[in-house]
UniProtKB/TrEMBL annotation:
Domain of life: Bacteria
Gene3D superfamilies: Glycogen Phosphorylase B (3.40.50.2000)
Any Pfam family: Glycos_transf_1
Location of the Glycosyltransferase subfamily 4-like N-terminal domain: 11-180
Sample GO molecular function, one term: glycosyltransferase activity
Lineage: Bacteria, Pseudomonadati, Bacteroidota, Sphingobacteriia, Sphingobacteriales
This protein's name: N-acetyl-alpha-D-glucosaminyl L-malate synthase
Organism of this sequence: Pedobacter cryoconitis
Length: 375
């Protein structure tokens, strides 16, 4: 197949899933064309089956807002015509699904019919899409997609409950590539972070409000009262400065390291004993899955699609959003005993295997084939 992929080429979950999916499809022999405004963060190598087409938005003194959606639609028309693509797969509803719809209409005037699949990742529905500013466009473009997928049952329900959806939605969960995410021998790094064999806790995110990163710090302080430990905060975003201040206020700066954005997250996860994700909502929780693949158990909230990933009491524990005391209590239960910790580590790895790329990739390929056959 010749597949066009549109995504936000950033470190965000939707961009990561789109890029990893494209790379895996290319490895299987499909021709994959990324159409984005900059090189996707994880597309940093050469492969004969991978192509990258940059959408450039011309600035013009008349524009207060450069019309990215029109530039993307025009680029899609150009790439589909020239590269003779079979299907487009757009990640994130706004503005990718509506740009794909526009491109599809234009291509029909050239006698070219191309179906497009839209994958909803969460924030495009839970945070942005419900806003009246975007809702009509989101609803319309989901209904006009030739196929729609969500990354969890919860997101499917949420989409159906909040939008007037006439299309059938297929659930295809996030996946993990074990060739990249696995426990790596990083003992020297572990020693540097925790010289006295303290437990190492980790949080990775974009430090947006929805991640409740202050809860990570508050939870850690409670854990630190009982168990010698260190906290690694990986990533960057709007709440980081406040989190740093909170650490100073709580007097725990010596135990917390803010590492900023990191490419080799799997190496850092490899030294960790527990992953913390107290999010307000999370359509799937890819970062938690990445941790589990590296044998790191998880403490999460029970919001959104997290109960579809976190098996409570097996690979980690779940608590209500904001219940920092309960989260800390559960974390201590895992961390205070070596045997318990090791069982949770093994279980986290076992649970991650349910989302092995090798199991999930065929679900996308079959779905593309169904959609192409129907159109
Ligand atoms: O979580 C983020 O801030 C990034 C966000 C995105 O929209 O790119 O991630 C979303 O998509 C991921 C991949 O499908 C999911 O694993 C994340 O759970 C989801 N984030 C939220 O729902 C908050």
């Amino acid at each position: 197949m010749k597949i066009g992929i549109v995504c936000y080429p950033t470190f965000g979950g939707s961009g990561v899933v789109a890029t990893e999916l494209g790379k895996a499809l290319a490895d299987e022999g499909h021709q994959v064309h990324f159409i984005t405004y900059s090189q996707p963060a994880r597309l940093d190598f050469f492969s004969a089956n991978l192509y990258y087409h940059e959408v450039s938005v011309r600035d013009y003194p008349l524009f207060d807002y450069a019309p990215y959606e029109s530039a993307l639609a025009s680029k899609l028309v150009d790439v589909v015509r020239f590269e003779k693509l079979d299907i487009l797969h757009v990640h994130y509803a706004i503005p990718h699904a509506s740009a794909a719809f526009m491109a599809k209409q234009i291509l029909e005037t050239y006698g070219i019919f191309i179906p497009f699949v839209t994958t909803l990742h969460g924030t495009d529905i839970t945070l942005v899409g419900k806003d009246p500013t975007y809702k009509p466009v989101v609803t319309f473009s989901i209904n006009k997609s030739d196929g729609v997928t969500t990354v969890s049952n919860d997101l499917k329900e949420d989409t159906n409950n909040h939008f007037d959806i006439t299309n059938e939605i297929r659930v295809i969960p996030n996946f993990i590539d074990f060739s990249r995410f696995s426990l790596k021998p990083k003992d020297h790094f572990k020693k540097a972070i925790a010289p006295n064999n303290e437990r190492i806790l980790i949080h990775t995110s974009n430090f947006r409000k929805v991640k409740r990163t202050a809860d990570v710090i508050k939870m850690f302080r409670l854990i630190l009262n009982k168990i010698p430990s260190k906290l690694l905060m990986v990533g960057d975003g709007p709440d980081r400065a406040n989190n740093e201040q909170l650490c100073r206020d709580l007097g725990i700066c010596d135990h917390v390291r803010f590492l900023g954005k990191q490419d080799a997250v799997e190496e850092i996860l490899s030294v960790a004993d527990l992953f913390l994700m107290p999010s307000e909502t999370e359509s799937f929780g890819l970062a938690a899955l990445e941790a589990m693949a590296c044998k790191v158990p998880i403490i999460t909230s029970n919001a959104g699609g997290l109960p579809e990933l976190n098996v409570n009491g097996f690979c980690g524990y779940m608590s209500n959003v904001g219940d920092v005391d309960d989260m800390a209590k559960k974390a201590i239960m895992i961390l205070e005993n070596d045997e318990v910790l090791n069982t949770f580590k093994e279980n986290a790895f076992k649970r991650a295997q349910d989302f092995d790329l090798k199991k999930i990739l065929p679900l996308y390929v079959d779905y593309y084939n169904d959609i192409i056959a129907k159109n």
